[in-house]
Structures are given as C-alpha cells and as structure tokens.
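Section 3.1: Structural characterization of target chains.
Under the original work plan, the team committed to producing a structural model for every single-chain target entering the pipeline before any wet-lab resources were allocated. The record below documents one such target. The sequence was received from the expression subgroup and is listed exactly as submitted; it comprises 202 residues.
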Amino acid sequence: MDSAFETLRDDPDIGPLVDRHGELTLDPAEDLFERLVVSILRQQVSMASAAATRERLFDAVEVTPAGVLAADDEVLRDAGLSRQKTRYVNAVATAFDEHGYSIDYFEGMDDDAVRNDLTDITGVGDWTADMQLMFSLGREDVFPVGDLGIRKGFTTLIGEGYDRAEMVEYAERWRPYRSYASLYLWRVEEDVAESVDEVADE
C-alpha cells in the first residue's frame, strides 16, 4: 500500500491531493452480493432515495441469492424497487446462485475476466462492475471513466477537452494504482466526495 502513495505523491497532478487528503484506502466489502445489489439500487437515483430503498429491502428480505429468489416480486416492488430494478436484482441473484459467485470465486481472476462475468448479468454495466472491482474486491488498478464524478474531478484537475478515451490514456501514468488515483479524483469536487464516501462505506 505504501508504494501506491509513494508513487502518487510524486505525481504532479495527484501528489497535492495526497498531501491534502492523506492516504485514502480501499476497504473491500465482506459480501459481494449485498454490495452489488446496493450498486443496482444506486443506479440513476439520488443517494437518499437509494438509501431509503436499501433499508426497506434489507428489512423485507434476506439479501442473499436464495433469499431474493424466494421473495415474491411484489415484496421487492413494495420495498421501492422499480420493475426494471426488480428484474436486475433477480438476474444478479440467479447468476450468483447458478455460478457460485463470491469474493473468493473472483479472487484469482484478472480484472477483465471479473468485469466480463459481471457485465454478462442483466442490469450490470461497466460502471457497476468497476465499483465492484474497487469497493468489493479491492482491486488497485481500476479507472472507472464511466463515472461522472471521475470525469468531473479529472476535468477540474487536468483540464477540459479530453474525451473518455483520452482520459483513459492520460490515466496510464497512474498505473498500477489507478484505483487510488480515482479516490483522489473523486475528492477534487466536494459534493462528489460525499457521495463516494457513502458508496465506499456501504
């Protein structure tokens, strides 16, 4: 871990953020399924709305693949899930049940292989997969360019005029610690930082 901060502290872009915010860390989740369900709840809604739905869902059902599959869709809908998110959560539960997905399952796989397996699940896109790689599996070299907060932080810190492909190319200088660089990019914008803290603390 120290080598990540030593590397980034020497970077002209990220270095001042390391000095300002200290050593930010990735704290992997204990339960990949729960974290993935929560990520789906967060899609395209406010943090407050997602948190309320999360609380109702966790009260209503056992948030395990078997627990979700045993629950009637109406129970999920009553907890606040849209029809679409009900379908997505069921798809995640089915995939985890059929394949035995878990943190241990993905332990020895490279990031691209994990991303491919996760994005094969209906409702799990690149952003959701990247959040799992970082905050569930603790992978150190993920650059989630699909995240609005990352793009906002990058633009504020580095400058305007970069498209996503160019952002990814620029971020190569932070390899193999792009996840840590991302933690600092999120903190360039204070409102974004608060949202990320909530994601990381789930």
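The mean pLDDT is 91.
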